[in-house]
Amino acid sequence: MAKDRFHQVVRTALEKEGWNITDDPYEINVDDVDFEIDLAAEQLLAAEREGRKIAVEVKSFISPSNVGEFHTALGQFLNYRDALTQIEPDRRLYLAVREPIYTTFFQRRFIVSAVERYQLRLVIYDVQQEVFTQWL
After folding, report:
1. Got the DSSP string for the chain?
2. d(CA 56, CA 43)
3. What is the pLDDT of residue 54?
4. How far apart are CA 9 and CA 31, in angstroms?
């Protein structure tokens, strides 16, 4: 699969925050169904032997239809989360979206409601700075 346009931006932002990229992409298989999540990372915490584990699906929202991209992103997120629950329940899944998309499209009532209803974890990134501005 082709990598998202801002894949490297999100990878760099993770590394800047001290995450160790363990897989790029993160390939998993559940009941003979293959999934490919953009990134997997781990972060060791000083007070713990085992660190935090995350997987991140990167979305740019650059097509003419943000609604269409949201449909795709939501479907992927739900499928990936279900798959991770079965094979690696301690790994948290995040959807990475650009800051301008979050501050506009993701503030629409229907989208806010869907994010809450489906319990999407979001990480918001700044393309120019290659950093995260929010973890939600």
Report:
1. -PPPTTHHHHHHHHHHTTPEEEESSEEEEETTEEEEESEEEEE--TT-SS-EEEEEEEE---SS-HHHHHHHHHHHHHHHHHHHHHH-TTEEEEEEEEHHHHHTGGGSHHHHHHHHHTT--EEEEETTTTEEEEE-
2. 13
3. 95
4. 32
Confidence of residue 112 (pLDDT cuts 50, 70, 90): very high
Separation of alpha carbons 6 and 20, rounded Å: 18
Mean pLDDT of the chain: 92
Burial pattern 61-79, b for ≥16 Cβ within 10 A else e, equals beeeebeebbeebbebbee
Using alpha carbons, list the distances in angstroms from residue 8 to 1, 39, 48.
Answer: 15, 10, 29
Quote the pLDDT of residue 43.
84
- Angle, helices 66-87/109-117, rounded to nearest 10 degrees: 10
Reported as a pLDDT band with limits 50, 70 and 90, residue 103 is very high
- At 7, list the tokens: 């894949």
